[in-house]
Amino acid sequence: MIRVEGLSHGPLEIPALVIPDGETAVIGPNGAGKTTLLRILSGITLPLHGSVRVDGIPPREQEVGWVGEYPDRNFLFDRVRDEIASSLRFRHLPCGEVDGRVREVAETLGIARLLDRSVMALSGGEKVLVALAAALASRPRLLLLDEVDSHLDADTALLSEAALRRAGCPAVVRVTGRMESALAAPHLLFLREGKVLHQGPPEAVFTALSGTAFLPPLWGCRR
Amino acid sequence: MRVSLRDVEIRRGEWTLSAAGVFGEGRHLVTGPVGSGKSTLALLLAGIIAPERGTVVREGSGPLFLSLPFPEHHTTGATVGEEIASWGVAEAPVLAASDLAGMSLEPLFRLSRGELKRFHLACVLARRWELLLLDEPYTALDCSGRDALSTRLSAPPAATTVIFTHARESLPRVDRLWEIREGRLVDLGPVADAIPLWSSPPAYIRIALEEGAAPANISVEDVREALCRTDG
Hints:
The complex is a heterodimer.
Chain A: E1 2-9, E2 12-19, E3 22-27, H1 34-42, E4 49-54, E5 64-67, H2 80-90, H3 95-108, H4 124-136, E6 142-146, H5 154-167, E7 171-175, H6 179-183, E8 187-192, E9 195-200, H7 202-208
Parallel strand pairs in A: 3-7, 3-8, 5-6, 6-7
Antiparallel strand pairs in A: 1-2, 1-4, 8-9
Chain B: E1 2-12, E2 15-23, E3 26-31, H1 38-46, E4 53-59, E5 64-67, H2 80-86, H3 91-97, H4 113-125, E6 129-135, H5 143-153, E7 158-164, E8 176-181, E9 184-190, H6 191-194, H7 203-210, H8 220-231
Parallel strand pairs in B: 3-7, 3-8, 5-6, 6-7
Antiparallel strand pairs in B: 1-2, 1-4, 8-9
């Protein structure tokens, strides 16, 4: 569980917020502060005012995974296998353990065939899957995904969403621009101008958003 | 402008893309999985790369433009105003279309990625093109921006427009559908007949087809209309 209190940072003003375990989708217009919130939850950015606790611990002391919109801008290694292994090797885990974990996470995400390829030769969607694998390798308590689905085609997006669920990370917070994908998350946050305007199950949030552009394409028009 | 692909093949190591067909006047949508070669095909139609086999023939003259997925790859000016001037178009309509009224002096890189994309597209669409190639125009746009773009692209300022995208939540009305399947570009034909042949349509279209609706085109409005109509 994530607890945010008295958060004030740039455009963000969030007096109190509790994000439950499981999957949460963050939606809202460009410039609402979605990415800023995610960076603060991850510990990449320290808030000017207020506090964030992930299971009672500050994000920087917690095991947190992060994947951005352009994952290849953060790749450190050329070979897929080395990129996925990086966080484990940085903490000097035994080679056998690292190799086993890399293979396990690559198989969960369906990218075992890519392990000896160069990350630069991958397609955009494959790069996302490699970045997801690298983030999941250390078994994070909290995984943060910033519009990771925006460069994926429908099948690849479904595949990575399914893989993510199989990976069993206790808490996933993902920013998405796709309302259809948000509909699949049990918990939704709608941000506008730095504030959390709506939160709750998707049905409740989308009902509150009636008349806006922030609805799944067929909302209210299904048998 | 009319672009004909005759027995074209592109090779990148193990990977190949073969394509044949004619992109005539009108609006075309090309879809396909990630890594299937949409961007490569866009570069080919633009004449930036040449095929390993076959020929690409462009008939007609006039300006052509390829908009790349990342808007920062197109910027040349330091400010919003300088960038608009570099396109040789009037400032006010572009500012209005990109929701940047009064921000002519704003440094370009202070815009968010969504704002920059919307601004880049407003610059592109302020001009008239004979051939307009849009590679992932929906990337980084929010829901309002995507809906506005779909409306705009239903009547684009170009004789021939080809949209390459994996976007699944909002699409413009088009005349013809194409799909890349297992290394081959497939011409699905005129839109209404092509929709049922589409192997991986956006979810809103797949659901409508499963429920027996026959949308006239691929925009969300068309699909909602077809679906709500069958709902009675």
